[in-house]
Amino acid sequence: MKGRLHSIESFGTVDGPGIRFVAFFQGCPLRCAFCHNPDTWDINRPVQYELTPEELLAEVKKYKNFIRSGGVTCTGGEPLMQAEFLAEFFRLCRQSGFHTALDTSGAVFNAQVKAALEETDLVLLDIKTLDDSLHKTYVGAPRTHNQALLDYLQSIGKPTWIRHVVVPGYTDDDERLHALAAHVAQYSVVERVEILPYHVMGAFKYKELGIPYRLENVEPLSAERKQNALRIFREHVNCPVV
Fold it and tell me: Residues 6 or more apart from 111 whose CB is under 8 A from it?
């Protein structure tokens, strides 16, 4: 069994607690309008790494002195498209004493995903929007699996961080922000909320790939609107909001 990886990062500081080894998985079933990694969408696209779980662990161990206070994060793309590989890799990581974190959109939810979650210490779950009428066109799929995964995380008591990208004209709306914050506040497993401001740093990739960029005329989220989103979430949840 081999995992298809877009890239790896040996000194990640934004994908979970501490300094982390970050593996970017190839393949994603979603087509989020704001995605800054469209080069990870096609699982069959040529990749930098095609490794067994043991080979990827060997890469991790090269940096063990740096990441002992952090751990290993798998992101993407969508790692749960390769859930069996993920489960085995995380099992080996935990045996070796590394904390494991999964950064996911919750786009896939099945028995293989549940098995992978057994080997996951922390889930970073990206919630795009609660608005069902927006979700399908904005994300490229219904919200069903994302909601089912969050409910399952609550049922098994899995530590969870919620991530939410705030995009002007789409999710930068006080009513939508209040609704999402109130929804998240119902889940006791949520330990942290991260507000991620929309940016255009990945826009050039769309031109390189010949893919239309749907947010061509959308400006990055302002510092003032990020502060507004932080304020709204802090009104509702009893965990750190950053």
Answer: none
pLDDT (tens, 9 = 90+) of the chain, 242 residues, equals: 999 999 999 999 999 999 999 999 999 999 999 999 999 999 999 999 999 999 999 999 999 999 988 999 999 999 999 999 999 999 999 999 999 999 999 999 999 999 999 999 999 999 999 999 999 999 999 999 999 999 999 999 999 999 999 999 999 999 999 999 999 999 999 999 999 999 999 999 999 999 999 999 999 999 999 999 999 999 999 999 99
Residue 210 has phi, psi (to 5 degrees) of: 70, 30
Cα–Cα distance for residue pair 137/123, rounded to 1 Å: 25
pTM (predicted TM-score): 0.96
74, 25 contact by CB (below 8 A) = yes
